[in-house]
Each structure stands twice: as structure tokens, then as C-alpha cells.
Amino acid sequence: MENEYFCSWKSDVEPEKLNELISSSVWVLQFLVILQVLKLRMEDEINKVIRSPSEEFAKNCVNKSYARAGNQEGDLEIRKNHRIFLKSFRKSCEYFL
User: Measured between alpha carbons, how far is 54 from 39 in angstroms, rounded to an integer?
Assistant: First the structure.
């Protein structure tokens, strides 16, 4: 009984249409994989851009705040503002991905 159903289903499908469906599905899958790879590369590049200048910027801010204020309150305020800026920048970058 099971073999009869399989054979009847197989005979109902036209090989040309089946080949078209398979080839179009393969193209769609390849396209999705390429998009995912591009997205991962963009995220990696954005993380590099966000991390490297921000660490340097934070070091400069810390050095300047100690030179100006001479206390830790100024340093903490600068770090807090810098974190807020990075979070908003990251969200805006994620919006475009």
C-alpha cells in the first residue's frame, strides 16, 4: 500500500517542474547563506570600529579627567557618558543590519 502511494505520487510529478523547483530552492538557499555571511562580516567590522577607537577614547578621557579634576567622580561621569554613547551608536548600527 505504501509503495503504491509513493509510485502514484512520483508518476504525478513532472520531472521538469521538479527540477525547476529544486534549482530555484538551491538558488534561494545560496542567496540566504551569502546574506548571512555578509551580515556576520558587517557585525564583526562594526564591533572592531566600536571597540578599538572607544578604548583609545576612554583612555584619553580618563587621562584628561585625572589631569583636570584630580578625582574619580569626573572619571566615572565620563565613562558613564561614553557607555551611553556607545550603546546608542551600536543600536543605530544594528538598525541598519
Answer: 22
pLDDT in tens, 51-90: 655 566 656 655 554 545 455 555 566 667 777 777 777 7
**Whole-model pTM?**
0.38
Three-state DSSP string of 28-92: HHHHHHHHHHHHHHHHHHHHHHHHHHHHHHHHHHHHHHHHHCCCHHHHHHHHHHHHHHHHHHHHH
The owner of cell 565613562 is: 79
Biggest distance spanned by C-alpha atoms of the chain: 87
